[in-house]
């Protein structure tokens, strides 16, 4: 079996592969990178490819590798791999999510100390022959408040180090429970404002999503304490760079240390390079010999295990199932992920329990674990827990303090197939149930808050609770039309005549804020929500 090592990894990892007589290992010349055309020729007979961040595994590369079975990424992010195209081709994509946790956390903490004590500019001054002690008077970390945005693996490691230095740690993470926060020794805050108002230092450890992209912007900086210091070793797109530059120039932000940027490599003329209160490193989060060795050995191990035994570890796109079981559970995987994603956008912060019921024919499935994993993946994929996948999702949920319970129910149900998910945050509960209409290719959400509905789980959904009064359907339709939002379908449910009603609409586009504000003015309407599936 041909294994192609495209980017530099630990020699120990390469040696591990070469020791297996089943493998023919080809290591590319890392100093003379292949062009895409040359790479297309090099992959025609390979069954496995190992990359870091340099080599791009595009759809074209995948198409040129008909024998390719697996791509291993020595590291966490798979931005350089077309995962969707790989999935369509039946190529498993695996990464090594644990290899860079400590090294990134350590870099973050060194950044904090360097900002506090002006180490980089003081060094530059000394090299220039100066002795400016008063110019570089710093502050202590002891007794200061650190705000951590995102308490996944890396955020948790940063918090440990901050606590050891006598800092107070505030954490914002919608998926972190109070119990888990207490275990970590941090104070959980309900929103980002709780960090912005009081933190002396703020560090980011969240993935880039629709919700987090540009979240540190002018509005956020305006809410922060004067003299706050910012560290970002996560993703550059989380910070609105022009807004941070303005905040640094005005001294509202006393200093910023960044290892990641919206565009990499950082352009030579970027304004960051000219600011005296900015500390920059060229994406060094995973760049330690220990981390590279761990990642190199781990990627070799998972590639070997998959090629030799079919075992899948750290897969980002496919669970490991035999063909027969996969065909049985396949329809439920999509329905489960949609239910999870739907509930994640409605659930209260601090989810601590997810209760999943399998009823009807679903209770007799030979393996419900992949479906549970799909539900959890849908629920957590936009959380601060980075790099979740079907393999590690249970461990990630447990690390976030979420208890997962499953039940095969013999209770009579209205539908032949029944999948119900209830999400709890303390005493707050949100639930939804789904089934199939006609065939497994037609999933539907048929229960929300125990009320009957009929929703196609895709696109944009609009939900509201309202008083059951004559004319409200027409009223909402008129407002939607006024704002050029088309209604694809509608589902209505009520508890009693003139009582409380639930209205759910499938929309062709996202309703603008002005429309939502106008709807919310109606005293008979409440709990207006928009969900994107």
Describe the structure.
With 533 residues, the protein is α/β, with parallel strands linked by helices. It has four domains: 2-98 and 289-309, NAD(P)-binding Rossmann-like Domain (Rossmann fold, 3-Layer(aba) Sandwich); 101-280, Rossmann fold (3-Layer(aba) Sandwich); 319-458, D-3-phosphoglycerate dehydrogenase, domain 3 (60s Ribosomal Protein L30, Chain: A, 2-Layer Sandwich); 459-533, ACT domain (Alpha-Beta Plaits). The protein contains 17 helices and 22 strands. The strands form four sheets. A seven-stranded parallel sheet has the order 8-7-6-9-10-11-12. A six-stranded mixed sheet has the order 14-13-15-16-17-18, covered by helices on one side. Helix 10 links the parallel strand 9 and strand 10. The longest helix has 22 residues, at 323-344. It is globular and about 85 Å long. The mean pLDDT is 92.
Jot down its keywords.
23% strand; 22 strands; Rossmann fold; seven-stranded parallel sheet; 533 residues; alpha/beta; 60s Ribosomal Protein L30, Chain: A; globular; six-stranded mixed sheet
């Amino acid at each position: 079996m041909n294994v192609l090592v495209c980017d530099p990894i630990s020699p120990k990892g390469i040696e591990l592969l070469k020791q297996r007589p089943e493998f023919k290992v080809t290591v590319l010349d890392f100093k003379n990178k292949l062009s895409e055309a040359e790479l297309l020729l090099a992959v025609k007979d390979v069954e496995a490819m190992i990359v870091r961040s340099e080599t791009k595994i595009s759809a074209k590369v995948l198409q040129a590798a008909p024998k390719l079975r697996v791509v291993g990424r020595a590291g966490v992010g798979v931005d350089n791999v077309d995962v969707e195209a790989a999935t369509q081709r039946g190529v498993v994509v695996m990464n090594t999510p644990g290899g860079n946790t400590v090294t990134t956390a350590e870099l973050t903490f060194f950044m904090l100390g360097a900002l506090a004590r002006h180490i980089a500019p003081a060094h530059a001054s000394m090299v220039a022959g100066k002795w400016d002690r008063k110019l570089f008077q710093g502050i202590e970390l002891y007794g200061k408040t650190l705000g951590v945005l995102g308490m996944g693996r890396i955020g948790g490691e940063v918090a440990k180090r901050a606590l050891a230095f006598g800092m107070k740690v505030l954490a914002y993470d919608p998926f972190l429970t109070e119990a888990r926060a207490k275990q970590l020794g941090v104070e959980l805050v309900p929103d980002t404002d709780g960090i912005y108002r009081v933190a002396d230092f703020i560090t980011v450890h969240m993935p880039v999503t629709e919700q987090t992209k540009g979240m540190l912007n002018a509005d956020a900086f305006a809410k922060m304490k004067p003299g706050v210091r910012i560290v970002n070793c996560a993703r550059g797109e989380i910070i609105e760079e022009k807004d941070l530059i303005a905040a640094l120039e005005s001294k509202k932000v006393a200093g910023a240390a960044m290892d990641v940027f919206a565009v990499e490599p950082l352009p030579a003329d970027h304004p960051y390079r000219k600011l005296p209160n900015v500390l920059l490193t060229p994406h060094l989060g995973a760049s330690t010999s220990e981390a590279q060795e761990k990642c190199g050995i781990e990627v070799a191990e998972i590639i070997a295990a998959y090629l030799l035994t079919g075992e899948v570890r750290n897969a980002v796109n496919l669970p490991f199932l035999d063909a027969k079981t996969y065909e049985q559970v396949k329809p439920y995987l999509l329905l489960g992920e949609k239910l999870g994603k739907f509930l994640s956008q409605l659930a209260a912060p601090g989810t601590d329990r997810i209760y999943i019921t399998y009823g009807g024919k679903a209770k007799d499935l030979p393996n419900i674990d992949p479906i549970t994993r799909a539900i959890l993946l849908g629920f957590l994929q936009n959380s601060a827990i980075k790099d979740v996948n079907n393999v590690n999702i249970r461990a990630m949920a447990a690390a976030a303090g979420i208890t997962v319970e499953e039940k095969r129910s013999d209770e009579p149900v209205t539908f032949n197939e029944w999948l119900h998910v209830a999400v709890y945050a303390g005493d707050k509960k949100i639930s939804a149930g789904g089934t199939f209409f006609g065939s497994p290719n037609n999933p539907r959400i048929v229960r929300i808050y125990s009320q009957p509905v009929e929703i196609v789980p895709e696109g944009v959904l609009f939900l509201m609770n309202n008083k059951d009064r004559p004319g409200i359907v027409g009223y909402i339709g008129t407002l939607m039309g006024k704002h050029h939002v088309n209604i694809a379908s509608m589902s209505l449910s009520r508890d009693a005549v003139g009582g409380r009603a639930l209205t759910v609409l499938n929309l062709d586009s996202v309703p603008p804020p002005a429309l939502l504000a106008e709807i919310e003015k109606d005293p008979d309407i409440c709990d207006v929500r928009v969900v994107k599936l």
